[in-house]
Amino acid sequence: MSDRFCIDGGGLIAHTESGWFLQVGFEQTELAAETPPKVVAERFAHLCDSVKGADKRCVLGVPSGECFFVCDELPDSIDAKDRSAVTFELERHFPLDAESMVADYFVRAASGQIAAVAIETRRHQPTVDALEAAGIEVVSILPTAFLIARAFYRSDAEKSPFTLWIFASTSAESLSVDGGGVYRWRQFYDADDELRRHQATVADQVDASERTVIVGRSELTFQPRGRVQWCDRDAVRLAAEGAGLALGGRWGRWPDLRRGDLAPSDPLFAVAGPLRKLAVAATCCFLILSIAAWYRGNRLAAESESVRQQQRAVFAEAYPGRRVPVMLMRTVRGEYSKTLGSRGRGDAIKLPVPATRVLKDLYRGLEHAQRVGGVRLRLMDLKIVDGVCSLTVRAVDAVQIGTIAKSLETIGFDVTPPAAEQIDPSKDEPIPTYQSTLSAVWNPPANRAEEGVES
Question: Which stretches does the entry tag as region Disordered (predicted)?
Answer without folding.
Answer: 420-455
